[in-house]
Design brief:
The chain is an alpha/beta fold. Helices cover 45% and strands 13% of the residues. Helix 3 (68-82) links the parallel strand 2 (51-55) and strand 3. Helix 3 packs parallel to helix 4 and helix 4 packs parallel to helix 5 (121-128). The protein binds pterin-6-yl-methyl-monophosphate.
């Protein structure tokens, strides 16, 4: 039976992004074919990834949805190749894709809709006894960045995640198999993302389960740094968010550059040990 405990304790761990997609915003097309994706994933594992997150549908703002068959065709061969050597999660909102990925060896389902997109998702995860990452998103990828609005973004995202935790456990997913994620960049302005990161300690305390933060290379970093669409320049901001997230209670960070995150976390751990 899956539990997050051994994965997230003693310290924060790194989830490496493996996008088997032609159009993800940050690495679109680079690993779209099976063999390059597997090779890339092995590199992330060697660099210190604790989980490899394999996705076959881009969730970048404005992205068009992909059918389940195509998503399965993209992710299953990659998961089959990696499952014997790594802990693999599948990044999908479709129960059929999750089921195929679990058959191929995935042990975690990472759903950016937290089980809202597909009514069969939570039951599929519960029946398989695998881990579940549920993320907050306002709207859906195609339109989510048009005009995101909240009264109190921290309170609303926290309450939404708490209700998704209830839905997951009601469907039969064990509480200790659930991780939650405030969904940086998913239906959020720069100010919303900053407010959520600034309140991370509170969110972690309020939810009472491990929290994942995925800020890697997201556009708010380009906006804050004044570097716009230059993705390489966002790596510095990504490292800053990794350090911030880990220092403020995140159990896991989802990043593209695993080596950089792993190195940053190793320094934090040394500092924490001396400061303790
Ligand atoms: N971000 C993306 C995709 N999947 N899943 C979780 N749990 N959290 C995230 O922040 C998240 C995600 C988009 O980034 P990508 O296109 O670089 O994978």
């Amino acid at each position: 039976m899956f539990t997050w405990g051994p994965i997230t304790e003693p310290g924060a761990s790194v989830m490496g992004v493996v996008n088997v997609t032609p159009d993800s915003f940050s690495d679109g097309g680079r690993w779209a074919a099976t063999d390059p994706a597997i090779e890339h994933a092995r590199g992330l594992l060697a660099a210190g990834a604790r989980v490899l997150d394999v996705g076959g549908e881009s969730t970048r703002p404005g992205a068009d949805p992909v059918g389940a068959d195509e998503e399965i065709r993209r992710v299953v061969p990659v998961i089959e190749a990696l499952a014997g050597e790594a802990l693999v999660s599948v990044d999908t909102s479709k129960a059929a894709v999750a089921a195929a990925a679990i058959d191929a060896g995935a042990r975690i389902v990472n759903d950016v809709s937290a089980g809202r997109h597909d009514p069969d998702m939570l039951g599929t995860v519960a029946d398989a006894g695998v881990g579940f990452v549920g993320m907050h998103m306002q709207g859906e990828p195609r339109t989510m960045q048009r005009d995101p609005r909240y009264g109190d973004v921290v309170a609303e995202v926290t309450a939404h995640l708490a209700s998704r935790l209830d839905a997951a456990t009601a469907a039969g997913i064990r509480r200790d198999a659930v991780m939650l994620d405030p969904g940086i960049g998913f239906g959020k302005t720069v100010a919303h993302n900053l407010a959520l990161l600034a309140a991370l300690d509170h969110i972690v305390d309020a939810l009472g389960v491990p929290v994942l933060v995925g800020a890697s290379r997201k556009s708010f970093l380009g906006a804050l740094q004044g570097t716009g669409d230059d993705l390489d320049a966002r790596e510095d901001g990504t490292t800053a968010t990794t350090v911030w997230a880990v220092e403020h209670g995140a159990a896991m960070v989802r990043v593209h550059d695993v080596a950089a995150a792993h190195r940053a976390i190793s320094i934090i751990e040394r500092l924490d040990a001396v400061a303790a």
